[in-house]
Design goal:
Chain C: Keywords: Heme, Iron, Metal-binding, Signal. The structure holds 3 protein chains of 3 kinds. By secondary structure, chain B is mainly α. Chain B is about 45% helix and about 5% strand. In chain B, helix 7 packs across helix 10 (about 265-275). The termini of chain C are far apart. In chain C, about 50% of the residues lie in helices and about 0% in strands. The chains are: A mainly alpha, B mainly alpha, C mainly alpha. At the A-B interface, helix 1 and helix 6 of A face helix 1, helix 2, helix 7 and helix 8 of B.
């Protein structure tokens, strides 16, 4: 019986060893080691270590683009707040982004909006992670 | 074919074993066991700090850190909250415009009852805190509710804690209402989940990180956390409520804090207070 | 105005690649930034948990291991960078905030703090 369980365990583990790391893992480990603007290969294709929000911000610094990204970031932050996982600084960053846009500093506005949107996405991700892992630190 | 069957069986057994393990740990409504949690937490701190008496945990960090204890004991000789307790007594005994008073709203005239708070209120289907019922009492008698964080509400709460000193904390989770257990579980989950830009759970500092320095500060152990509230914090220079402290702590994880008396904060208070069952009320307290 | 800034930047870059002292200056600037990040409460605040033998790092905490023998512990500097970027990768329960993953520090600040601690 013990043997069977062992075999089963090996079988269960096997796919983990066989499959390559997920895109998410590859992205994070490359961003962690090299920072942004780095190119890495995953499953035979090249990818950049830039966050999707940084890519979104890399558009023409126009009023329209800035306001659009600010609106997207605000919506994302609302999603995080709904889950009770809004971060402390995000609201302030969004205000600064709006101020920059009002002052015609569209590049700055885009970069701040990207950061706020990223923070919101991470808060949402953190909530999802907590749902299945919160118990890990409970003393048994 | 036979081999495949055996393997399938093995997989099935493995899956079943995993399920049993999960069932033992109390992370869902079906299996959560508050009493087992309380014992496990006590055992955890007993092995972390074998020199400390469990009954002493109501004194927070001073139960486990001898060097700061002396300074604190000196502070408690002329307690900074003394005047606030007196003011609280006066406020408590001052009748409302309709002639009634706080004593009419609470059991035993509001004296010596702190140890039973917070409690599960079946009719309302929610956890009721002492501060919440102080304001409900006011509103029921045509008075405006008090502000939650500090001032009069903290003083009245301090006086009520004062009249309950040394009474054993006695939080009950009624078994005839599954919603009570769900509230407890919600509070427990809040305590152990990582949150905020700094990715900190309450447990990061107050379980794993208890009595280990963050700069020059020592985080207190979670056991005993709520017994001494409301608290006179030297940092505030005044008395404040438990939820004021919750908001501050929540913010320290770089989360946007929630509002006073919001459901999950009350559930957190329910969970934390249950952990203290058997310890005594020693509010109001003085802390750094 | 933007043109002017660009040309100043270009001039700066040119100076950095052509003149050796300027390169040394850039390295010093980076170390100074790393130190500020390490000590400043609203930036990295590393000192709150990690002791370091820098005379300016007073009242260090001890939630995390002290910063020493870094070159020995992290022969590959990129592994050190990754640990600072997201310490939960190796230990999901760690009290250490994911300074890069949660964009607490900018990537430039992380590079700088890596260089700063790598001296110890």
């Amino acid at each position: 019986m013990k043997k069977i369980i062992t075999i089963a365990a090996v079988l269960a583990l096997a796919p983990t060893f066989a499959s390559a790391e997920s895109f998410q893992e590859a992205f994070e480990s490359n961003r962690a080691m090299y920072g942004k603007n780095h190119t890495f290969e995953w499953n035979g294709k090249n990818f950049s270590t830039n966050h999707e929000e940084e890519v979104e911000a890399a558009v023409a610094a126009t009023k329209e683009n800035a306001l659009d990204l600010i609106a997207k970031a605000k919506a994302k932050n609302k999603e995080a707040a709904k889950l009770g996982f809004e971060w402390k600084l995000t609201g302030g960053i969004l205000k600064d982004a709006q101020k920059a846009a009002d002052a015609g500093e569209y590049r700055k506005a885009l970069d701040l909006a990207a950061q706020a949107k990223y923070h919101s996405r991470m808060g949402i991700q953190q909530h999802a992670y907590a749902q299945s892992n919160w118990h890990l630190s409970v003393p048994q | 074919m036979k081999i495949i069957k055996k393997l399938a069986l093995g997989l099935g057994v493995a899956a079943a074993a995993q399920m049993t393990q999960a069932a033992d740990s109390g992370f869902d409504l079906a299996t959560v066991n508050p009493e087992a949690d309380r014992v496990a937490l006590q055992n955890y701190f007993e092995s972390r700090f074998p020199q400390s008496e469990i009954s002493d945990y109501v004194n927070g960090i001073y139960a486990v850190d001898a060097s700061s204890r002396e300074q604190w004991e000196e502070l408690e000789e002329f307690p900074p909250y003394e005047f606030a307790v007196e003011e609280g007594e006066t406020l408590f005994n001052t009748p409302f415009a309709n002639g009634k008073g706080y004593a009419d709203c609470f059991e035993n005239g509001g004296v010596g009852i702190r140890q039973n708070y917070p409690y599960w209120n079946k009719e309302a289907g929610t956890v009721k805190t002492l501060e919440m019922e102080i304001n409900e009492c006011r509103e029921a008698n045509g008075e405006k509710p008090l502000k939650w964080a500090k001032g009069d509400i903290a003083k009245i709460s301090a006086y009520m804690a004062w009249t309950s000193r040394d009474k054993p904390i006695n939080i009950e989770i009624p078994s005839d209402d599954p919603r009570a257990k769900a509230a407890y579980l919600d509070g427990k989950k809040f305590f152990y989940a990582k949150r905020g830009q700094l990715n900190l759970s309450c447990a990061n500092c107050h379980v794993q990180g208890a009595n280990i320095r963050i700069r020059a500060d020592l985080p207190s152990p979670q056991l005993g956390h709520t017994s001494h509230f409301p608290v006179f914090r030297s940092k505030w220079g005044e008395l404040g409520t438990l939820h004021r402290r919750y908001k501050g702590c929540h913010k320290d994880s770089r989360s946007k804090p929630l509002s006073h008396q919001v459901e999950v904060y009350r559930n957190l208070e329910f969970f934390q207070s249950y952990m203290n069952n058997g310890l005594v009320v020693n509010g109001p307290g003085a802390r750094k | 105005m933007r043109k002017l800034t660009t040309s100043i930047c270009a001039a700066g870059l040119l100076a950095m690649v052509t003149a050796a002292p300027a390169v040394a200056g850039a390295k010093e600037d980076q170390l100074a930034l790393g130190k500020a990040v390490y000590l400043n409460k609203s930036r990295g605040n590393c000192v709150s948990c990690h002791a370091i033998s820098d005379p300016d790092a007073t009242q260090a905490g001890n939630q995390g291991p002290p910063i020493l023998s870094m070159k020995m512990r992290f022969p590959d500097k990129r592994k050190l960078r990754a640990q600072i970027w997201d310490a939960t990768k190796n230990n999901p329960l760690t009290i250490m905030p994911p300074l890069g993953k949660h964009w607490i520090l900018s990537e430039e600040e992380i590079d700088a703090v890596v260089e700063y601690v790598y001296q110890f």
